[in-house]
Amino acid sequence: MKQPKISRRGLVKGSLMAAAAGGTATFFGPWQHNRVWAQGAKKPIKLGLTCDASGQYGNSGQDDVRGIRMAIDECNAKGGVLGRKVEWITADTETNPATGTRVAERFIAQEQCAFLIGAVHSGVANAITQVAGKYGTVYLNTNSSAPSEAGENCSRVKFVWDGNGTNFSKAAVQNAVERIGKRWLLLTNDYVWGHTTSAATKAQVEKAGGQIIDNLLVPQNTRDFASYLLKVQQAKPDVVATAVGGDDIKALRQQVSDLKLEDKTAWINNQQDWPDIWGAPETLFGVFGTTWYHKLPLPGVADFVKRWQTTYPQSPIPVPGNVSYNGYMATRELLRAVERAGSTNNLKVIKALEGHKMSAADRMQHFDAYIDPATHQVQQTIYLARRNAKPADKTDLFELISWTKPESALDDAAPGKCKLKADAEVPSYEM
Amino acid sequence: MSLLNLLPHLLNGITLGLLFALIALGFMLILGLMEQINLAHGSLFALGAYFAYAIATPRLPLPDDMLQAWAGVPLGWRFTAALLLAPVLVAPFGLVLERLMRRTYGRDPLYGLLLTFGVAMVLEELIRVVWGTRDYMIPVPRAMAGGFIMLDLIWSTYRFWAAALAIAAMALVWVIVERTRFGAMVKAGAHDSEIVQALGIDLTRLRVWVFVLGTMLAAFAGVILAPLWGIRPHMGVDAVVPAFLIIVLGGVGSFWGAVIGGLLVGMVVGLSGAYASEWSMLSMYLLLIAVVTFRARGLFGKKSILEA
Questions:
Q1: Which sequence spans correspond to the domains of chain A?
Q2: How far apart are the first and last CA of chain A?
Q3: pLDDT attached to residue B60
Q4: Of residues A227, A261, A279, nearest to B9 (C-beta)
Q5: CATH 3.40.50.2300 fits A166-297+383-409, yes or no
Q6: Which CATH number describes the domain made up of A45-164+298-380+414-430?
Q7: Residues A231-247: tens digit of each pLDDT
Q8: Which burial class, exposed, middle or buried, applies to B141 when counting CB atoms under 10 A from its CB (0-12, 13-18, 19+)?
Q9: For residue A358, what are the β-bridge partners?
Q10: Residues of A in contact with B226 (CB under 8 A)
Q11: Which of B137, B234, B286 to mutate to test the interface with A (most CBs of A within 10 A)?
Q12: Higher pLDDT, A369 or A32
């Protein structure tokens, strides 16, 4: 039997190929516990802003960016974090989960972003979470408010900054069932936020002794609501509770106000984002929720608004609203957490955020807030508002009618649905 | 489901269908004669809405005193001016687009498709640069605004005005296509462009006029729909998808195909919105699949470029 001959050249070539293959394998994974980049004392910390610039939440996504950038600018003006400058990059996630996945993957694997921030659409937020979870990258969901984000779709690496559908429903429903009526009709955007928010509303209505007489699902990008509005009129509910967002709610508001249907039945619009309201303020109606308003009579609010306006003199939206506020607060707290952790190590940063308490004064809200360690959702003051009949200026669109303590608006079911991974199961990194 | 409950939704479907048909009409003209799928149709629709907004509100680049004087004109006249002038202002964009498309004539339709897709993106960005990303609303005259009661329900007054204007525009297009020499040339050009040229008809000029007419119809539809759907930079997408679907459903190059296709889509969307709301967006696509499964050329179509 002829023995295979191994030449010196072949041996060298084979060794090189084996080394290259081994190196490649090491580079591509497993990532668990082995992502450590050369840090250089002054290497900037890069943040990936996963925000929509187009699609249903394009306007809100850009307002989110404004808040995030302002927090970064202010941080850099004070010397950065851990003596390192903070940099950012952004890409349009297009209100599309598939795009959100691609952007998150690129930001982490190619751009070496230390942290991801931003989202309005819950489907996009969930898609980004999947990618972030794979790499262990800390992700701040700034503005998507599906209850599932801090429930069944929660993650150890994700922190949810907005109030969610359950929080707003708890603040609004009990009182409305008692004072307005028991027959409720739901108008639900046909995606995860709409479904989970309406489910939360339904639970609250039934708990308060009310009844859901119909739930009309509204596909995303619906522009013509005439058939829905005819159906609403035929059903004659006491209350219509909407979980419709972005451009869809703007079209709905326009068509409801044109028919003056807001006078015929009571409308509770779960949460109204400021960029959606600013798009068509004259069509604002019903009772709706928010987490912040630029005319809250609290210390620091006026100064924050002034700083924001100085930063963005050409902004298409003249004052910050809840979306920009959430972006700012989330980013500021992330950078503070890095400072507290003394490191960009993701597990240390996660621990610095979990259970973190924030004073009402610091957050410019009525009550103290905290990051729930069981769900990673910020529990905060929940405001209910309606259209301001006596505005002080053209931006004074809200009349705040109540502010609810975080404990009273808590999503009790979320901890049971949210299963957070242990440290050992989270890929770690430091960069 | 009693007839009394169903009736409002049938009526709503018809009004919606007329609006869809109006959106599709300009698309049909260009596809019918030039065998080009104009994906910029939606952007021209959006431009019509934005120009109408500028005229009606008014936000025109005019000297202050002229602007003040125009603002003092009753809204009814400003809205009428927007209806008539916005399509005229959008027409030059159609002229430029037609000029750009000339190199694609007679070639694989994919070239025209890609070109118009690119133009659509450029126009949408142009809108963002000029008007920003925020939404706008066009106020409508008092006589057209608000609601009225019929069948014990409140109906949008403007919706019926819009449907009536759509019928008027469709009637005008029908007269042009069916009762004028220009229309005869357009139909002949769509049927056999070589013979038309051999007869001494300037096909290039004919194409320009058809493109301008299609552009103006898109812009007119934008003005009509703006008070109902609102104005935003990506509103063109809301128009171009149903327009394309209606043309394929009704049959490429068929006037009545566009009208009947629009009405069918309106009825299906309206009824599904009321009785199976989660299917309301999907229903038009299911209708298309159902029709093209049995008749690939659409309801009234002759041989289509899509079969080539």
A1: 45-164+298-380+414-430, 166-297+383-409
A2: 56
A3: 87
A4: A227
A5: yes
A6: 3.40.50.2300
A7: 999 999 999 999 998 87
A8: middle
A9: A369
A10: none
A11: B137
A12: A369
Greatest mean pLDDT among A20-34, A97-111, A235-249, A259-273 lies in A97-111
Q: Output the DSSP codes for A247-313.
A: HHHHHHHHHHHHHTGGGTSEEEEEE--HHHHHHSGGG--SEEEES--TT-SSTTHHHHHHHHHHH-T
Largest CA distance in chain A: 100
Token code pair at residue A293: 């308003």
- Give the relative orientation of helices B41-56 and B203-229 as an angle to the nearest 10 degrees: 60
Task: Extract the tokens encoding A351.
Answer: 């621990």
Query: Nearest by CB to B273, which of A227, A251, A260?
Result: A227
B147 vs chain A: nearest CA distance in angstroms?
A: 5
Cis status, amide bond into A30, omega within 30 of 0: yes
Is the pLDDT reported for residue A29 higher than 90?
A: no
Look up residue A217 and give its two tokens.
């699902």
The answer to whether the CB atoms of A219 and B137 lie below 8 A apart is no
Give me the sheet containing A45-51, strands edge to edge.
A86-92, A45-51, A115-117, A138-141, A158-160
Residue B227 parent element (H or E) = helix B203-229
Give the best residue of A223, A232, A258 to mutate against chain B (max B CB count within 10 A): A258
Please state, in angstroms and rounded to a whole number, the distance separating the CA atoms of residues B231 and B82. Answer: 14
Token readout for A105 is: 């993957």
End-to-end CA distance of chain B: 44
Cα separation values, A165 from A244, A318, B161, Å: 11, 27, 38
Q: Which CATH architecture has domain B3-307?
A: Orthogonal Bundle (1.10)
Write down the domain spans for chain B. Answer: 3-307
- Is some CB atom of chain B closer than 8 A to the CB atom of A261? yes
Which is nearest to A385 in space by CA: A278, A280, A265, A293?
A293
Rounded to whole angstroms, the Cα distance separating B204 from B191 reads: 15
The reply to whether A166-297+383-409 shares the fold of A45-164+298-380+414-430 is yes
Distances B212 to A147, A386, B15, B27, B30 between C-alpha atoms, Å: 50, 47, 26, 11, 9
State CA A84 to chain mean position distance: 26
DSSP at A106: I
Count residue pairs from A and B with Cβ separation < 8 A: 108
* pLDDT over 80 at A158, yes or no: yes
Predicted interface score ipTM higher than 0.95 = no
Closest residue by Cα to residue A224 from B148, B79, B224, B87: B224
